[in-house]
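Hey, quick one: can you model this chain's 3D structure?
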Amino acid sequence: MSTLSFDLVVIGSGPGGYVGAIRAAQLGLKVALIEKFQHLGGTCLNVGCIPTKALLESAKTWDKLQHIQDLGFEAGSPKYSWSKILGRKDKIVDDQRKGLRFLMKKNKIETFEGHGRITGKGKVTVTAADGKLTTLETRNIMIASGSRVRQLPFAKTNGKGIMSSDDVLFITEVPKSMAIIGGGVVGIEFASLFARFGTQVTVIEAAPQILPYEDEETVKELARCVKKQGVVIETGAKITAIEDNGKSGVTLTTADQTRTFEKVLVSIGREPVTDDIGLNTVGIPTDRGFIKVDLGTYKTNVDGIYAIGDVIPTPMLAHTASAEAFHCAEVIAGKKPHKINYEANPSAIYTYPEIAAIGMTEKTLKEKGIEYKSGKFPFSPMAKAKIEDATDGFIKILFEPKYREILGVHIVHARATEMIAEFSLGKVLETTVDEIAHTIHPHPTLSETIMEAAHAAMGAAVHM
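Sure thing. Here's the predicted structure for all 464 residues.
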């Protein structure tokens, strides 16, 4: 068993781990990065954000091809090849993997493939697939071990009839019917994806609405749009049994009926991966699997050990993990970075149309007794929205009436995830709704709708 010494050892190479490793290396630290799977990049790159969005882009293109005559083109009867669509997805993922390997070499980060466990203060062992042990001695440890899909206790996924979000990315053909258990972000994205390829999709959500943590009005508009795509949404529904019957399909039972679907996708959330990384050895407690840290430094209760990303109780988002890791690496290197403003942390949902948001919802503001006003503007009057055949949706700005500072923003539109960044920056800079209204936006663009929503907040909407 060999022993090597580092300034920082990072456990996990997802968008949190690899960003933390790179930033630490940029600041002059000698860094080791441990990944237990074959490829770097974690869930996001390999079975999450990137492959999912690649498939969603293909679904959006296919949807557009169905209406190509409306754009003035004659192209006969378009067809798609699912195997080629999967091939494009795989190529994008592979290109990104190669890019990560290059970045590790460029920044002189030593990578180790195997299971990383903390075995003592300043010590991490790496167990390779062949059983070989390597001990890493280090001044600091960053835990970035990420998350995994949650399972239904009475119906574990099998990668065949009952699938997880990991499994479904490799499905060999588009199913005729699919039930999706869970109307959260992942579930509703896959509903939008497969429905546009012709699958009869039924989303079954236990809560009163899909996307329970998003703005109610925004979700209502999204639900209207996905229903037009053929998605059936059932809320307040509880699954009592699932049985995979092989080629005859999967039987799914709720309180009031039993139905059979070709495939069932279980999408009930994710849980942190902290159960086998040696936390007990050094006395780091967990709560439902999550590690408690100081959000100014990401330090755990043990000196020299930090945690970021899906293993701490902050939003389980790739960009959140990256921001936390960047900040944490600077703390480890002796810098004093500004504390992350989580109210400016955007959520992004890649349905069609998309949903994006920052800050609080109207429901949260009411529950907290916070006084607010709102300005809302639809995309339907905007010339660029008509040009892009993307007139569904709106922008809603929630703001504090006295100083007019932004409290929350909610967008539903085909390009929502791109437009939310302007509001994220505005929130960090404590921008007022009036300042956004008086900022000149280029014409014709979709971003003009941001200005129009701010004008509406001032009672001075121009194009409505």
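One thing worth noting: The chain has three domains: 2-149+271-332, 162-268, 343-457.
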